[in-house]
Design a protein that fits this description.
This protein is α/β, with parallel strands linked by helices. It contains ten helices and 15 strands. The structure holds NADP nicotinamide-adenine-dinucleotide phosphate. The site of NADP nicotinamide-adenine-dinucleotide phosphate has 28 residues, from helix 1, helix 3 and helix 4.
Length: 326
């Protein structure tokens, strides 16, 4: 089978297509033929060697969400059968024609979604829902979603509304991305590259201010996030797509208005509170089924052109999800 990986850190051209054996699978695993493979921003940072939690061991093939068809199951797998279409949460060695994963990491592919859209039910869409749950978004609140046109961001903009937010403000780095965020239901979209973005967000929020901020960009922006929070507001930090791996220290005094700063990590949630993680999947599926969340695919790129897919994310041109198609 074909697999895409990199043997060094560097620009997208380090991604190479190679031949490899199909992955083996154990008694509790499922072998899946991939139809669509999600491309995450973290894949780009790992390729560059700048991932905030450290560079991956080489050679490296990303772990990401895959949708496809079951071709074989291990002896102890009862829930899935060959021929069934499924979504695999964070499959290892995922930029490949086949992936093997524990059955516990699979969901049946829901009717009404194509494989590319369904990849968002893996990690990416779940992160968006759990960020909002971590922030305890309540009916009538105002939510600010940074990078609201990104893969996680565009789901978060829609899910915030579905969870009862009265006002959703997105930030995005280009006019097209801001139009896109508004088309998904954001009441306002602000350019976070504008140094005055906190004022623009405050104007859009009105007198009640911002109750919740979701920030996966990080860096100095976090300091301004705290400033735009209303009393009792909550900031959830979940990534550093802006590239600042150091991250600023948030002054304790800025939290005196009963503000809270929280971190979110999907692996931690899954490891420590699996039941809560399950609830997030059910919630997201419900939103997709009732049409309140619409996954958007920006581009379907052939697997062998993975470098082009990475360029879309690295050059900040993607709106919604980019997938690879074997
Ligand atoms: N905590 C967790 O469990 C968890 C799980 C999955 C992913 N993540 C993190 O979530 C974040 C978003 O992931 P995603 O897959 O949704 O990414 P994405 O679709 O690429 O969105 C990231 C956005 O960040 C913005 N950005 C700001 N500075 C950037 C820069 N220097 N280079 C590239 N983009 C920049 C861009 O939006 P604008 O152009 O609008 O600025 C871009 O669209 C990443 O930091 C990722 O590592 C965290």
């Amino acid at each position: 089978m074909r697999i895409v990986r990199h043997h060094e850190y560097g620009p997208s051209k380090v991604l190479v297509t190679e031949e490899a054996e199909r992955p083996g699978y154990g008694p509790e695993d499922v072998l899946v033929r991939a139809e669509a493979i999600g491309v995450d921003h973290a894949d780009v940072q790992r390729r560059l060697g700048t991932f905030p939690l450290g560079p991956p061991p080489l050679p490296y093939c990303p772990s990401t969400d895959v949708a496809g068809t079951v071709v074989a199951v291990g002896d102890r797998v009862g829930d899935f059968t060959p021929g069934q279409r499924v979504v695999v949460w964070k499959a290892r060695n995922a930029y490949a024609e086949y992936v093997a994963a524990p059955a516990a990491h699979l969901l049946p592919l829901p009717e009404g979604l194509d494989a590319a859209e369904a990849t968002l039910l893996g990690s990416t869409g779940r992160v968006a829902v759990h960020l909002l749950r971590t922030a305890r978004v309540a009916e009538g609140e105002t939510v600010l979603v940074h990078a609201g046109a990104g893969a996680i961001g565009h789901i978060a903009v829609q899910a915030a509304r579905a969870l009862g937010a009265a006002r959703v403000i997105a930030t995005a780095g280009s006019p097209a991305k801001r139009d896109f965020a508004r088309s998904l239901g954001a009441d306002a979209a602000v350019d976070h590259r504008d140094p005055d973005w906190p004022e623009r967000v405050a104007e859009a929020a009105g007198p009640g201010g911002v109750d919740v901020v979701l920030d996966g960009v990080g860096g100095r922006q976090l300091l301004d996030d705290v400033k735009v929070l209303a009393p009792y507001g909550r900031l959830v930090f979940y990534g550093a797509s802006g590239g600042d791996t150091a991250q600023p220290a948030i002054p304790a005094l800025s939290l005196m208005g009963m503000r809270q700063v929280m971190g979110f990590s999907m692996p931690t949630l899954l490891g420590s509170r699996p039941a809560e993680a399950e609830e997030g999947v059910r919630l997201l599926l419900g939103f997709v089924r009732d049409g309140s969340v619409r996954p958007v695919i920006h581009a379907r790129v052939p697997l062998a052109e993975a470098a082009r897919a990475h360029d879309l994310l690295e050059e900040r041109r993607s709106m919604g999800r980019v997938v690879l198609v074997p």
